[in-house]
Amino acid sequence: MLNTIMNLHRTGKTPEWRATPIAEHTIWQRIANQSRGVVTPANLISLSGLALTMSGLQDFNKGNLNRASSKIILGRVCDIADGYVADRTKTKSPIGEAVDATVDKISMAHGLYVLSKTNTLPVLVTASFLTQNVINTAATVVAKKRGVELHPSAEGKITTLLQWASIGGYVLNATLGHNQEEQATPSSIALSSHAIAAGATMLGSYVNKQYVQTVFKQSIVES
To answer: Domain range for residue 142?
Structure first.
C-alpha cells in the first residue's frame, strides 16, 4: 500500500510523458507537453480541491457549517484523486509534484488559521500540525537550495491524510453543535479526533526526521 501511494505522487527529474514518443502521446500528454507540465488533469484537480477547501473554510468562518463541511470534504477528496489521475494519464511531472505539495501546504495553513480562530481545533493540535508543516516546508526549501532531490514520502502523504481526518472530525463535532470548551465530557467524535491527531503527530514527527536527514545526509555525501 505504501509503495502504491508513493508511486502515485512521486516523479523523477523529467516529466513522465518524455519517455513516450510524441507520436504516441495521448491528448492529455500532448497538452501537458505543450504547456510544459502546467496544464494537466491532476493539476486541475489539485487546484479545484484548493478552491473548494478555501471556500469551505470561508463558509465555516461565516457559520455556514453544513455547506463548509461538504466543500472541505470534496476538497480533500480531490487531494487524494490528483495523484491517481496523474498516474493513470501518465502526466506526472516535477511541476505537478510541486503543485500537489504547495496545495497541501496552503490548504493546511489556512485551515489551521480559520479553525483555531473559531476555537474548533485544540491549541495543542494546531501547534503540532503547524510545527510539522513548517519543518517539512523548511526542509524542502533547503533541499532545493542545496540541489538535493527531496520527494514527498508515502508516510508524509499518510500524515497529511490523518491530519485532515482529525480536522474533519473537529469540524463535524462543531457542525453537530458540540462546543469542546463548554462540554465537561468530550463527545465521541472529539475523542476520535484526538486519537487521530495523536497518530498524525507521531507519524508526522517521523516524517520530519526523515526529510531533515535526507537533506543533510545527501548534502554531506555530495560535498
So the answer is: 2-222
